[in-house]
């Protein structure tokens, strides 16, 4: 598909998003929260050391998961726009947090101090500049990255090409 035709298809899909996104949640018993969106259902919880039952990810872990999903999907779209085939994308995010503000123990402006993102791209393209090019696209387009950046979170990235045999 030509880049012009792909952009046209994306524009037509964007129109369907005008009504916004709807996510619903319900908590019947602390701390488990049942979350529903479109056709998906999942939950959020706290670990036992935070008085939780450990039945689901913490809200900050959900944020990191959303960040990784967004980076992976945007990377794939950008690679297609560059006429490059990606095999697999391996991602990891680490957050440095200060939970004292969450529990009112101290006036903490940002509980999430920094987020480190590691992206490994498995491809046979032989294009050594691909990680840097994909990184630039993600930096411009990723809504989760924009939220983190605008809230003052320090963002650290490492992008690399991985051998296809890993």
Question: If you had to describe this structure to a student in words, what would you say it looks like?
Answer:
Helix 2 crosses helix 3. The chain has 166 residues and is of the alpha+beta class. 34% of the residues lie in helices and 29% in strands. The protein folds into two domains: 38 residues; 109 residues, K homology (KH) domain (GMP Synthetase, Chain A, domain 3). The chain has four helices and six strands; from the N terminus they run αβββαββααβ. A hairpin with a 2-residue loop joins strand 2 and strand 3. The relative contact order is 0.12.
What fold name stands as the CATH topology of the largest domain? GMP Synthetase, Chain A, domain 3
Poorly predicted runs of 5 or more residues: none
The outline comes out as globular
CATH class of the largest domain: Alpha Beta
Strand content: 25-35%
Q: What's the CATH architecture name of the largest domain?
A: 2-Layer Sandwich
> Using only CA atoms, what is the Rg?
19 Å
Main sheet record: 3 strands, antiparallel
What separation lies between the terminal Cα atoms?
Answer: 30 Å
How many H/I helical runs?
Answer: 4
Instruction: Specify the structural class.
Output: alpha+beta
């Amino acid at each position: 598909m030509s880049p012009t035709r792909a952009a046209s298809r994306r524009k037509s899909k964007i129109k369907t998003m005008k009504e916004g996104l709807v996510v619903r949640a319900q908590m019947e018993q602390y701390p488990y929260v049942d979350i529903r969106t479109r056709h998906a259902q999942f939950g959020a919880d706290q670990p036992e050391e935070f008085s939780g039952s450990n039945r689901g990810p913490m809200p900050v872990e959900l944020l990191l998961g959303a960040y990784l999903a967004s980076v992976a999907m945007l990377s794939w779209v950008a690679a297609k726009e560059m006429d490059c085939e990606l095999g697999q994308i391996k991602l990891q995010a680490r957050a440095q947090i200060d939970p004292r503000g969450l529990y009112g123990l101290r006036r903490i402006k940002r509980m999430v101090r920094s987020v480190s993102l590691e992206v490994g791209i498995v491809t046979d393209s032989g294009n050594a500049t691909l990680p840097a090019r994909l990184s630039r696209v993600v930096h411009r387009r990723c809504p989760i990255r924009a939220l983190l950046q605008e809230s003052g979170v320090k963002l650290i990235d490492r992008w690399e090409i991985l051998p296809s045999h890993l």
